[in-house]
Amino acid sequence: MSQALDFWISNTENDVVSTADAMPEEKYDFRPTAGEFVGVRTFAQQVKHLAANNYRMAAHVLGQPATADQESETGPGDVQSKAQIMDYLRGSFSALHQSVATITLGNALSPAFPERVETARQNTRVQFAVDAVAHSYDHYGQMVEYLRMNGIVPPASRN
Amino acid sequence: MHRSNTQIIDFILDYQEKRIVDVAEAMPAEKYGFVPSVGAFDGVRTFGEQLKHIAADNYLLGAGILGEKPPRDAGTEERGATSVRTKPEIITYLKDSFAYMHRAAAAIDDAKVPIPTPSISPWPNGTATRLGLAIEDCVHSWDHYGQIVEYLRMRHCSVRQSSGNQEFGTGSDRHNYESGARLLDQQH
Fold first, then answer.
1. Which residues contact A118 (CB under 8 A, 6 or more apart)?
2. Ranges under pLDDT 70 in chain B
3. Distance between A1 CA and the closest CA of chain B, angstroms
4. Which residue, B3, B25, B6, is CA-closest to B160?
5. Are B32 and B87 contacting, i.e. CB atoms less than 8 angstroms apart?
């Protein structure tokens, strides 16, 4: 089970990191304007948001709380340049790989947080891991469109 | 509380079906042929083709999980059935594909049992599992959901969420996702 989850984390990492890297630094503040785009995230905010949730879910897989900027899914305020954001993003996938490696058939579907047992919140290691990749692909789909709007073919679509 | 893999996948399918169908409904029928043109968009799918592609993969991966032929024509290269053309036809095709994935999800147990790898999947032979294919299906749908949301916004359309008054793509939709997990407890 850990292998199945890790496989998808690697796939997600390949797609998302290459897409983030394909956007030139001067376009990291791009957000679409032609249409109904009031209040949407910039490209950089999309990447930081996606990474912050990865860190959050990696912590939860380990039964640990997330930091405030992970819980709010904004990422640290001092992560601003493309290089910093790329490091933050790569680190988020490293955190996921490390946390998912602790998942076994024995603990995969049991509660990670005792205090959540009587609540409706997500509480199994598999849920947290799937949340990270599913959420990442939602924003990957948006990042791909942002790239194309800037005349850049996404790496996954290049032959 | 123990949650089975079937319960976890069912919850994600319910959630994403609602989100994707809401976007599909929000786009006017005459815009289903919309494809972005300002930028590097040569050869990309139209809005309607995106929906049919999501549905096609639901059928193909659901069939992989169940070890049977897809119940509907998935078309060539995951394009979906050519006979499905109008907005109502596409939405029905889409909804039926999620119903089929729910059937497939019910076949997922908590054991690690290798199954044949479908031709559209990246799993090396002998490594695909029912859970793995279900995750593949879910992340694939989210990828295209992210794209159709952008198409919708480009056409000056938006969708209001039923659980709040936030539009897609704003910060609070994620929190609705996790709070929406309560559905899992209510349903099971």
1. none
2. 1-2, 110-111, 160-188
3. 7
4. B25
5. yes
- Please tell me the predicted confidence (pLDDT) of residue A121: 72
CB contact at 8 A, B23 and B157: no
Residue-level pLDDT at B184: 35
Q: What is the CATH number of the domain that holds A150?
A: 1.20.120.450
Q: Hey, are the CB atoms on A7 and B4 less than 8 Å from each other?
A: no
Residues whose CB falls within 8 Å of the CB of residue B147, separated by 6 or more in sequence, listed in order: A141, A142, A144, A145, B50
In angstroms, the separation between the Cα of residue B158 and the nearest Cα of chain A is: 7
| d(CA B185, nearest CA chain A) in Å | 6
ipTM (interface pTM)? 0.91
- Of the candidate CATH numbers 1.10.3720.10, 2.50.20.10, 1.10.10.10, 1.20.120.450, the domain formed by B5-158 belongs to 1.20.120.450
Contact residues for B142 (Cβ-Cβ < 8 A; gap 6+): A134, A135, A137, A138, A141, B16
CA nearest to B170 within chain A: A40
Q: Would you call A124 and B8 a contact, using CB atoms and an 8 Å cutoff?
A: yes
Q: Between A11, A121, A142, which is nearest B150 by CB? A: A142
The whole-number pLDDT of residue A23 equals 98
Q: Do B139 and A134 touch (CB under 8 A)?
A: yes
Predicted pLDDT at B128: 87
Tens digits of residue pLDDT in A94-105:
999 999 999 988
